[in-house]
Amino acid sequence: MYNRKPVRDNFLVFGNPLIKEAEIKEVEKTLLSGWLGTGPKVARFEDNFRKYKGAEYAIAVSSCTAALHLSMLACGFLPGDEIITTPMTFCATANAIIHAGCRPVFADCEKESMNISPEEIEKKITLRTKAILPVHFAGRPCKMDAIMNIAQQHHLRVIEDCAHAIETEYHGKKVGTFGNLGCFSFYVTKNVVTGEGGMVITNNEVYAEKIKILALHGMSKDAWKRFSDEGFKHYQVIYCGYKYNMTDIQASLGIHQLQRVKKNWQRRLQIWKQYNEAFKDLPVFIPSPFEKDTLHGLHLYTLLLDLKRLKVGRDFIVNALVKENIGIGVHYIALHLHPYYRTTYGFKLCDFPNAEWISERTISLPFSAKLCDKDVNDVIRAVGKVIDYYKR
User: Fold this and answer.
1) What does the pLDDT average to over 95-118?
2) Which of 40, 76, 267, 373 has its CA 20 to 30 A from that of 343?
3) What is the CATH number of domain 262-390?
């Protein structure tokens, strides 16, 4: 008999960020300073992030979507150019390609890593292909050696979608520094939080300067300082740009979040190990082991349901866990299955079988460094309760 009483009395929010006193005080100082927009705090956050990633340039923007869009504009792609990416990602990845006037071309992912397959990338290259856009899914690094070899052979640019992968390393090198540009997210559920926000890193000065200008209406770089105490400066509009800049309020959070990035990662690693141990004998597939000589960013903890051993489908399990007061995510329904991409680009069922297999089975569990031991135990109890009841 199923026990209808939820494991928790209150709802455990999925992706609840860990905000501490240092961030709150920094935001208060910013509010009292009178400088709320793009200013010294943004510059400080950019410099801190640049040093953390070991990049020459870092440009803070309003979101990872903006970072991706601006990166493609900086590369000078033309309408109709093709960019290869994975269908196992958030819609922002493909939408940024489209907004840049290009065509998203999907290459299937690997079942085990959920990352784009280098072998499938090679199958998708045409004369119109101009770039590869790998997504480091859930914080697990893509096979960047293979991807960079493909890019070099075919003279393609590489723009890394590192929305899940702030801490991630591949063969001793931080992701985002392999390709021409790397794009990061500081959305409220991410490992470093500014509420909304993103960052582009690059070692290319031309790309960096163009992105910085495009991110603030296309105005000359002096526009970023035109109200400072250095004296008033007139600006010139060089490009038809965008309103993609980060604010000092957001950067006030990021400065302190970045300082605790390793500590928070270590807490999530503890939770990862607890989940793996608790779920290993259930009718689910726990995440694949970490690959040798890599550092997993530990952004999402995703279970794949073993549907052959369950009486119900994924959505039923998700709703049952929500009734247990456990917040759940689904990362992701493969992009080619969504109406817009099917209608616009002619994608159909069975085009990307691995992505579809994951789409039917994936659930993401609460995995924030904010989780206390009771929260983690509640998640474990709820998953065990629901899965045990609905297994065959």
Assistant:
1) 98
2) 76
3) 3.90.1150.10
